[in-house]
Amino acid sequence: MSSEKLVINTQVVGNVCKVDFIGNINEDADFEKIIALKMPEYHFNFDQVAMINSCGIREWISLITKIGTQATIKYFNCRQIVVEQINVVHGFITDKSQIQTFYTPYYCDKCNLEKQVLVEVKSINNRKAPAIKCDKCSSKMEFDAIEEHYFSFIPKK
Ligand SMILES: [Zn+2]
Fold it and tell me: Cβ of 131: how many Cβ atoms within 10 Å?
């Protein structure tokens, strides 16, 4: 599985290039076609990203370095693995990047259930996890990471 190459689907709509990343961001990830488009705005969709390894991070930073000074980049559906990179890897995003939506991990003690909930950055206040109810038992789910850390990419308000 991990040797499968990252699939990159691009769709240009006006000034915006929508990009879907599907699979693993690793040393085989080839971002050339994104760079070659030279668009003023990119919308990156991470919904189907399964894994990022250290070589993938290096390739990613190279991509962001090439397009990030010219283009506005919006990040959508950031998986937990992507949020973790945004928080700890310098250069994973640029100052002109805007993170729009991302997944937050929750856990229900009673049901032993995990859930990834998609939230909008603008809906997060003071870096606190929104209250989420368990689908099965309706009790309040536990946030399954460290709030202070997980939401640290969001400016304080
Ligand atoms: Zn439950």
Answer: 9
In DSSP terms, 46 is beta-bridged to none
Residue 11, classed as helix, strand or coil, is strand
Tens-place pLDDT, residues 59-101: 999 999 999 888 999 999 999 999 999 999 999 998 889 999 9
Protein fold of 1-99? Transcription Regulator spoIIAA (3.30.750)
Comparing CA positions, the residue from 65, 99, 106, 67 lying closest to residue 82 is 99
What are the residue boundaries of the structural domains of the chain, listed by start?
A: 1-99, 105-157
pTM passes above 0.90: yes
> How far does residue 2's CA lie from ligand 1's centre (Å)?
32
- Interval between CA 40 and ligand 1 midpoint (Å): 45
CA 138 / ligand 1 centre spacing (Å): 6
Instruction: Please give the distance, rounded to the nearest whole angstrom, from the Cα atom of residue 143 to the centre of ligand 1.
Output: 13
pLDDT per position as a tens digit, 89-143: 999 998 889 999 999 999 999 999 999 999 999 999 999 999 999 999 999 999 9
Q: How far is the CA of 22 from the centre of ligand 1 (A)?
A: 31
Quote the ligand 1 centre to 115 CA distance (angstroms): 10
